[in-house]
Amino acid sequence: MAKSATTNEDAPGLIDARIKELGDWRGAMLAHVRALIQQALPDVVEDWKWRGVPVWSRGGMICTGETYKSVVKLTFAKGASLDDPSGLFNSSLEGNTRRAIDLHEGDKLDEAAFRALVAAAAALNGSRAR
Question: What radius of gyration do the chain's Cα atoms show?
Fold first, then answer.
């Protein structure tokens, strides 16, 4: 079996490099949401998949952090199963599984609600692992 080009040990450095490479509001936003994820789940696992997408997991995938020209997209793998009382999900709302948060330049993220959503996603992963 061929070995993967990256390992979990490589992922934090690759994410750091992506943030630096972006060098604009998208890098700052990605760094900000990464810090919020780490605050919500200090034991979160960072990974680097699909040729350059940061992925955060604990007991299963929590979310990805994709960067596009005009948006930072945080896609929650099981978002459709999560309560979102603050209405953070604003993209991919029609699917049966995923939900996403699209962040544009100048957007302000409700930090407490986001941390709660991340924690709920990890809890959902934990409940399904049993």
Answer: 14
67-120 tens-digit pLDDT: 999 999 999 999 999 999 999 999 999 989 999 999 999 999 999 999 999 999
Task: Calculate the CA 36 to chain-centre distance.
Answer: 10
The residue behind tokens 């940061």 is 54
* Site of tokens 């709660």: 116
Beta-carbon contacts of residue 3 (< 8 Å; ≥ 6 apart): none
- Calpha distance 97→57 (Å, rounded): 16
Phi and psi (nearest 5°) for 107?
-65, 145
For 122, the token pair is 């990890």
Q: Residue 60 phi/psi, 5° resolution?
A: 140, 170
Whole-prediction pTM: 0.89
Total Cβ atoms within 10 A of residue 106? 7
Q: Which of 91, 89, 81 is nearest to 126 (CA)?
A: 81
> How would you classify the pairing of strands 99-103 and 72-76?
antiparallel
Q: How far apart are CA 117 and CA 110, in angstroms?
A: 11
